[in-house]
Amino acid sequence: MLALPARYGRWVPILAPVTLILLFLHLNASLSTRKAQVILEPELKPTTNNETDSTIPEDTNTTPNPEPEPETPTSQPCRPLPGIENVLVIMKTGITEAQDKIPVHLRTTLRCIPHKLIVSDFEEEIAGIRTHDVFRNVSETLLTNSDFALYNRARAGGRDALTQSDMTKVANSAAGMPDNPGWKLDKWKFLPMIQEARAYRPDMQWYVFLEADTYPFWPNWLAWLDQFDSSEKLYLGNQMQIGDVIFAHGGSGFVLSHAALHAVAEYHAGQVDRWNYLTETQWAGDCILGMALGQVGVDLTWSWPHVTTQSVWEQDALGEAFGKMQWCYPALTFHHMTPADIDRLYEFDRRWFSNENNTFLLYSDIFRNFIRPMLADQLDNWSNFAKDEVKHEPENPTSEPESINQCAERCARTAGCLQYRMDADGKCYTSEWALRGLPSPGVWSGTMMWRVDAAIQKKGHCEEPMWVLE
Ligand SMILES: *[C@@H]1O[C@H](CO)[C@@H](O)[C@H](O)[C@H]1NC(C)=O
Ligand SMILES: *[C@@H]1O[C@H](CO)[C@@H](O)[C@H](O)[C@H]1NC(C)=O
Ligand SMILES: *[C@@H]1O[C@H](CO)[C@@H](O)[C@H](O)[C@H]1NC(C)=O
Ligand SMILES: *[C@@H]1O[C@H](CO)[C@@H](O)[C@H](O)[C@H]1NC(C)=O
């Protein structure tokens, strides 16, 4: 399913469920504590997943019985979230995805958020909230840029003006950028979004920026932000690098302090044309924003693993990357979450925090209580993204495809192997990760359950949460 192991993929969420996987260097995590994920060039994500409901397996044998809820989440009172009144949450979306992806947030993750702004390339009512047209103030000149064709069409003719190709999920070319109107428009939203946020609530301490496939855990966010001073210029997010620009990955979610937001908004307002020119020459809008912040002296606080590029199904909670182990860190977001994923995780989130003793939600808590119960010895049509190809012995280069049991045996014989996977062509892969994984036709996946349980035991419980603070 993926050109690169999922957890090293850098995914740009875009309008319509088209996504790109971006190629970048594999870094030796344990040796490189100060290296961002370097992005060399964008590449197509070779999948046609229908993202609205792709990650829930049909077979629920392996999942814990979800007890029927007497009440729907929307009928429940909001639990207190002290500090949320000082936060503006900005969710960025677009006309080609908003109706699929926004309603679920409004009934779950955004339901109890007092200050929220949905920015889009089209103003409309969605599930009772009005989206803000992020381009309402751009110049006539910029509107003649071909990237704005979709915007101009929608503004003139509304949703009826969308064409089939606007909704195209996968580009037809095998190389280069996808010919997707929503994607091309997306990079232009970042700086105007900063202006919209400032205009909407100039007095907030924190501005949290999310995308429509990003899942936020609010108690963790508030506990984290509480340790910073919003009058300092702060930019916190998942470190990425294009060329020599270090910036926060948009889909992972990032935050600007009051001081940082006002500084960059002021700066950008003074030279909009120049930044339009710079945006034209770049392909990643989150990178443009990082450049602008750099110009006003705001450096990124590297916040992995609080925020990551992956969904909850692709997290390696037992492992290590970028010199850090996720286990004792609170998770602040997951990315590439479908509406069905969001509903499901929200149920867990709600139950977890309904226990008065649970102040935070750590990666270890999620792994132990949400992921581990879904792991199974073997799953059909499923990929856990096991990454290490098992090579045949050179003196016996058999062309026979292996059986899944032989693949399992190879994992069993390999110290540290927790999962294995066999593709349709009989190639066997092993892995030291323990990932829930995603549906994948023709792929078998398996987990050494006892080893996973031993690893959980060995890691144990975290005395205190670990935080990225500088
Ligand atoms: C995606 O799948 C859902 C459920 O199977 C279906 O209702 C919807 O029409 C699909 N969307 C697209 C764009 O294929
Ligand atoms: C957009 O332009 C109007 C009119 O000039 C102005 O009042 C408003 O503040 C601008 N909004 C933003 C977000 O820049
Ligand atoms: C919270 O912890 C206390 C002390 O350990 C325990 O007595 C109580 O039952 C716990 N509450 C819940 C809801 O688990
Ligand atoms: C896996 O997918 C194939 C092809 O769609 C199907 O025939 C088979 O029944 C599936 N296996 C399971 C266990 O669902």
UniProtKB/TrEMBL annotation:
Residue segments, region Disordered: 42-80
Pfam families membership: Fringe
Localization of this protein: Membrane
Gene3D superfamilies: 3.90.550.50
Lipid bilayer topology: Single-pass type II membrane protein
Positions with biased composition (Low complexity): 55-64
A Gene Ontology cellular-component term: membrane
Keywords: Glycosyltransferase, Membrane, Nucleotide-binding, Signal-anchor, Transferase, Transmembrane, Transmembrane helix
Protein name, UniProt field: N-acetylgalactosaminide beta-1,3-galactosyltransferase
Organism listed in the record: Penicillium cataractarum
Lineage: Eukaryota, Fungi, Dikarya, Ascomycota, Pezizomycotina
